[in-house]
Amino acid sequence: MFFYLFSSLIILSALGVVFSQNPVRSVLWLIFAFINSSGLFILLDAEFVAMINIIVYVGAIAVLFLFVVMMIDVNSSKQSLLKRKYDLLIGALMCIGMTFNIYVIIGYGFGDADVIKRAVLPQKLFEGLTNTAMIGQVLYDHFLIPFQVMGVMLLVAILGAVSLTLRQPQLNKKPKKALVKDSIKLVDIQPGSSVSDITYD
Description:
One of its GO terms (molecular function) is quinone binding. The chain crosses the membrane at residues 48-74, 86-110, 143-166. It is an enzyme of class 7 (translocase). The chain is mainly alpha-helical. It folds into three domains: 1-78, Up-down Bundle (Four Helix Bundle (Hemerythrin (Met), subunit A)), CATH 1.20.120; 81-120; 122-164, no CATH class. Helices cover 68% and strands 0% of the residues. The radius of gyration is 31 Å and the shape is elongated. The chain starts with a helix and ends in a 35-residue tail after the last helix.
């Protein structure tokens, strides 16, 4: 019962994200979808993943999206109707492509029982462990090298973002030569002289 409830709310939230014309409301629908997906993780006895989903995605990423949308002041009413039709067409094509990929993965990948047996770890390895301990044991015992490589990749991304942010603009130290026609010269005119008597260097 709760599975169908959370699944229905996730579908409704996803439709609200896509079809809402207000960007702020789209982000709020996205947050609601993340919360309901955490409910599905709780039903799977994955409380740690559910809490991480709320803390990371809802508490950090979705709130960041909300702040960015509010700061840039996106006005969807300025978009033309033709552009919206193209956006809906592109979104529909992407949904069809993703559905086809999921069908291929489920049909040809998980249809083989040997693939599932090789992917699933023995249950006896996790007897007497909590959910958090099981995730830690899998990450640091069986996937240590990919986990460390992923951390190095995130570190490189952070360093690249910091270097781009702190890069100072290169100023041209050589002053531009002023053109003669754009320059102004102050001349001290003597009493009794005319404009024709002024000499220029």
